[in-house]
Specification:
The protein has two helices and four strands. By secondary structure, it is an alpha+beta fold.
């Protein structure tokens, strides 16, 4: 069994408050959960208006399958117009 993790840091230039930021981040987390079979949560920078760190994890038998699925998730997150992906880190356990 393999565990792939993806850590994505995003900049949200249009957020004018923590409430705006949380609405945007929680909305995307819900969309990813509904579309992909992964675990996802906001990990860090909870008190910053314009920055969020999102963690994604997936378990599977094949590294290629997990990499492909996490790449789909990254592409989906990167396509969001309300933020800019500024850092990505993929890891294996």
């Amino acid at each position: 069994m393999l565990v792939g993790t993806l850590c994505v840091q995003v900049h949200i230039p249009g957020a004018t408050s923590l409430k705006d930021k949380r609405r945007i981040v929680k909305g995307m987390i819900t969309k990813v959960q509904n579309r992909f079979n992964v675990s996802i949560a906001e990990l860090d920078n909870e008190d910053l208006w314009r920055r969020a760190t999102i963690g994604v994890a997936m378990i599977g038998d094949s590294q290629e399958h997990i990499e492909r699925q996490l790449q789909f998730v990254l592409n989906f997150l990167d396509a969001e117009a309300r933020w800019e992906v500024i850092q990505v880190h993929l890891d294996w356990n």
